[in-house]
Amino acid sequence: MAAAFDVVVIGGGPGGYVAALRAAQLGAKTAIVEKDRMGGTCLVRGCIPTKALLQSSELYTLAKAGQPFGLVADNLGFDWPAAQKRKGQVVDQLVKGVEGLLKAGGITTFKGSARLAGKGVLDVSGEQQLQAKDIVIATGSAVARIPLPGAELTIDSDQILELKEIPRRLAVIGGGVVGMEFAAMFAALGSKVTVLEMLPQVLAMVDSDLVAVYTKHLAGRGGELHTNSKVSKVVKQNSGLQVQFSTGGEGGAVDADQVLLAVGRVPFTHGLDADKAGVKLDRGRVVVDEHLHTDADGIWAIGDVIGGIMLAHVASYEGVCAVENIAGHGNRVPDYHAAPNCIYTDPEIAHVGLGEKEAKEKGIAVKVGRFPFAASGRALTLGQSEGYAKVLADPESGRLLGAHIIGPRATDLIAEATLAVQNGLTLEQLDLTIHAHPTLPESLMEAALAAQGRAIHIANRRTQSPSGAFGATSPASGEANRRTDAPSAAAAQASGEADRATSNMQNQEKQMAATVKPSSTPPSVPSAITPKSLELKKDNRDFLLGLHRQMQLIRRFEERAQEQYTKAKIGGYCHLNIGEEATVVGGVLALKRNDYIFTSYREHGHAIARGIDPKAVMAELFGKETGTSHGRGGSMHMFDANLRFMGGYGIVGGHLPLAVGGGWAVKYHKQKDVVFCMFGDGATNIGAFHESLNMAKVFHLPVVWFCINHRYGMGTPVEAASAVADIYKKACAYDMESIQVDGMNLREVMLRTSEIVEKTRHDSEPRFIEALCYRFKGHSVVDPDKYRSNEDKEKWRKADPIVAFELELEKNGLADEEYFKNVRQEIDAQVREIIQYADESPDPKVDDLYRYVYAGQWENRPELKSEPV
Fold first, then answer.
1. d(CA 444, CA 3)
2. How far apart are CA 311 and CA 259, in angstroms?
3. Which phi and psi (to 5°) does residue 531 adopt?
4. Mean pLDDT in the chain?
5. Distance between CA atoms of 748 and 754, rounded to whole angstroms?
């Protein structure tokens, strides 16, 4: 005879065992069926074991950076087997704890797989039958698999927990929560991690500004992200694996020792025979009503199996709701508007309620406040000051609508915000609550104050007095008083404004965000480049941010040029500056406007840095009449006589003798101009290089030779192609002053280049600069770039010049992630306009193709014009 129960729960995960315990509390005779260990996926193979290993990796990271704290450890290493052992001990302890709770609650447990047999009967592994008045399905979810060629070569989120050793190279397919947590952990442990995500952003459910902070941190650990990337297959390659993918039409490949397939989870109903019991399924998930009841009498479902918010704590919440509905103690309809989401990356991410993107999409007006952990005393004592807390509130009532945190212990801090969102608390109620000091939760209070313009521990910006208790909101921007202008001193005096406390305030980050100024021209350069003019201080902020923007513009321009090339909008060859931005901007902006630039065919960024309209540069790439050379030069010949930009040349090193000619012209006219000749390391092994340097020295020509050494000349490492690996030493053979600079350091390049240029301007002696940098793409767009090892690429990607400069600006309080986010968005829009302009520009007329060469229009120079052949 079947054992009879009031409630039987199928599944012992965080939804199932919590439901069983609550049912027993309400007086129901309860049983629970679990085929594996109590605690389910979360406790045995998910939340708990991953967090145990993440804690180990966090301690390792902190220990490695322990010297400033007084922690000195020699030969510090990571014992993976020991970490695995501890993980197992934590899991075992918690499993026993759940088993003890169930026993103490008088709940009968059955081990096996449950099958719905109809009319309240459950079959347990074909060995026993149970009779229940009500059944709760809590079978959870399983790892999702996709029809990917080579998927059998990958591992999933269960298998990666059981690895015997840390992989030297890990490829992660899928940039969701699971993929990014493992990416963070293994990157911290020294693995070379590459993430491939099909969507435009990893962690798609998280606000983009928080994701930007995390991805920058991951890049600093050597992690590499490829978004908008579709994986085609996984194959065996030598002694490892290779993941082949495409991004924007361009093929790519990642070598790895292990490939994690982390493309989500799917509801698990296998073997349940749900449909035979009258339980409706929709693409594998159990369909429930608002009270969590299925179509079948007496059968309920909760957690991942219903396909809603697939989080352990949501399952537990639903379990309580379901059994309270069963017991008749309430009419519980789950309310998900304050369901927190926690992501255990480094730094941690947590959010609850409304996000900025969602607010904008739904047309909801919000006011936003942020507080950086860099201003938190507790975060600084922890040595973990990266990130910030952000709150969103209704602009009229001040009711908290959402909170988003990235930084130390964000997953703990979100609890207070969740309570506030759930109960409709206001910003004022948050800030009037006494928060202990020094603690991390103070940051949430400060963010609430910042949203009201009353932040205490960051600077505020005065704006016009608000019309009500809270400042006006611009729905378009999603931030309070974004478009409110600060009154001038005269206006304030005229209006008799005396009480500054009544003025609306904005935090420092809002002030930074408001200063983004669209511009296609390089920043205004001080009359003299000195160490003081490049100091990371407030007086230099506009200039330094202008340099940053110029690098970002060149980076995005080149990335989109690559896309246009794959769409056949750009013909011939296309050579990119990606990775060389600090060298290019620092070198070109160190010049005076009357100096001449002779450059190579990798000159798009050089032209933009010089001040040539990016629209004209892109139009030239497109072969359009509005291009710099009226579409005649294409990707290898940019030219602007007014800016003394003498364009690129298709022959490697072919422009070096021309720069000598330019030097002769300057010397002949007795001008104080300098000829600046830019070329790559590939040009240093040809005769023209040596003859040009020799002639410049012999005749004392004012030429500064600027070698952009990105370590590979057309695919061959410099040390393999040249007898002298340090190229600047070659110039020493011609008795000219020569230096080597860090081409990934913008300020160093600019300062040292300016010093050399001004010396040459003074004495008309040639000099040589070698800027060591690294291009992040191959020799050209079509170069598969297989001659460089992933280890080599990764070593240099960690020194990304833009990321490095942003960290400097952020550390010195000159900018923040919100500012950088706005810059990126504004530049994206600008580059879209650039492409549209080039695309819509007219093609050159065939009959006029003889016109426009470097000497000007042929018809205005009859001595240069001949009859067409």
1. 52
2. 25
3. -55, -35
4. 87
5. 10
Per the CB < 8 A criterion, the answer to whether 684 and 716 are in contact is no
- Dist. CA 866–CA 869, nearest whole Å: 9
Q: What is the DSSP letter of 305?
A: G
Which H, E and C letters describe 97-164, residue by residue? HHHHHHHHCCCEEEECCEEEEECCEEEECCCEEEEEEEEEECCCEEECCCCCCCHHHCECCCHHHHCC
437 as an active site residue: the answer is yes
Q: Going by C-beta distance under 8 Å and a sequence separation of 6 or more, which residues neighbour residue 402?
A: 351, 352, 353, 354, 355, 359, 366, 391, 392, 421
- Pick the closest to residue 765 from 828, 830, 698 (CA basis): 698
Which three-class secondary structure string do you get for 354-371?
CCHHHHHHHCCCCEEEEE
Q: How many helices (H) and strands (E) would you count in the chain?
A: 26, 34
Digit-coded pLDDT (tens) for 463-488: 433 333 333 333 333 333 333 333 33
**What whole-number distance in Å separates Cα of residue 424 and Cα of residue 429?**
10
* Torsion of the alpha carbons at 562, 801, 523 and 542, rounded to the nearest 10: 130
Instruction: Give the integer Cα–Cα distance in Å for 734 and 731.
Output: 5
Q: Which of 53, 198, 821, 173 is nearest to 478 (CA)?
A: 821
Torsion sign (Cα): 848, 850, 854, 857: negative
Residue 245 contacts residue 233 (beta carbons within 8 Å): no
Query: How far apart, in whole angstroms, are the C-alpha atoms of residue 636 and residue 603?
Result: 7
707: Cβ contacts below 8 Å, ≥ 6 apart:
679, 680, 681, 683, 684, 727, 728, 768, 769, 770, 771
Pairing outcome for strands 250-256 and 240-247: antiparallel
**728 Cβ neighbours under 8 A, 6+ residues apart:** 707, 738, 739, 740, 768, 769, 770
From the list 217, 226, 404, 437, the catalytic residue is: 437
**Which pair of structure tokens corresponds to residue 447?**
């963010």
Angstrom distance (rounded) from CA 754 to CA 499: 49
Q: Note the Cα 710 to chain centre separation in Å.
A: 24
Residues 712, 715, 720, 721, CA torsion sign: negative
Q: Give the whole-angstrom CA distance, residue 756 versus residue 738.
A: 9
pLDDT confidence of 630, banded at 50, 70, 90?
confident
- Give 136's strand partners: 9, 300
Is residue 299 within 8 A of residue 279, CB to CB? The reply is yes
> In sequence order, what are the beta bridge partners of 351?
341, 404
Strand-pair category, 3-10 with 128-137: parallel
User: Which one, of 680, 688, 616, 619, lies nearest residue 645 by Cα?
Assistant: 616
Per DSSP, 4 falls in state E
Instruction: Compute the chain's Rg from CA coordinates.
Output: 32
The C-alpha atoms of residue 311 and residue 309 are separated, in whole angstroms, by: 6
Cα separation, 694 vs 736, whole angstroms: 10
**pLDDT tens digits, residue range 483-518?**
333 333 333 332 333 233 223 333 433 344 334 445
* Helices 541-566 and 746-763, axial angle in degrees (round to 10): 100
Quote the pTM value.
0.64
